[in-house]
Amino acid sequence: MAEEWGNVAKYEAAPVREITVEEGIGLGGIAKAKAALRSLRLVLAPARVPPLGRLILLVAVLGLSLATMGQILETRGFVPAASPALTRQRVETAVKGYLDTWDPGTDPLIILESGVQLKSSHVKGIEIDGKRYYYRTVFGYSGDPVSRGETRDYQIFMVLDAGTHFEAEVYQLTR
């Protein structure tokens, strides 16, 4: 009889006798080996883990497995590309940060030939995931390349706060 130990059961084995070389490996020997293996059985303790507990355990094990797989793939040079939705969200967050605040340490002022001072991000754009994005406010002065007339080759990536006085276009140059 199996003895319960928490949710784990100990093994219960019937006496097993060794199969000698004299018995050979014939069908009789294989049948005896199978019978000996069948006599060793695991008696499972009644499951006491509630279904929610099993689900949490399954999710935890799956999460650890995926995290380990991610670490293995990353160390071998397989880095997943950023999804378009994630890139879009990152660009929106970054541009809104540059529009709403000014940090002289990361976004110093630039003086244009006309004498106007602007944030460097407003003139040179910002780089996210290896791509450069420019922004221009619709209702107000903008110092970006399109507004200054330096280029007409651009593609709008997104419009922020559309229809408000804070509306801004985020675009990339296509040249």
What would you note in describing this structure?
The chain is of the alpha+beta class and 175 residues long. The protein has two domains: 72 residues, no CATH class; 90 residues, no CATH class. Helices cover 34% and strands 22% of the residues. The chain has four helices and ten strands. Strands 7-8-10-9 form a four-stranded antiparallel beta sheet. A two-stranded antiparallel ribbon has the order 1-2. A hairpin with a 7-residue loop joins strand 9 and strand 10. The chain is elongated and about 95 Å long. The protein starts with a strand and ends with a strand. About 5% of the residues have low confidence.
Question: In short, what is this structure?
Answer:
This protein has 175 residues and is of the alpha+beta class.
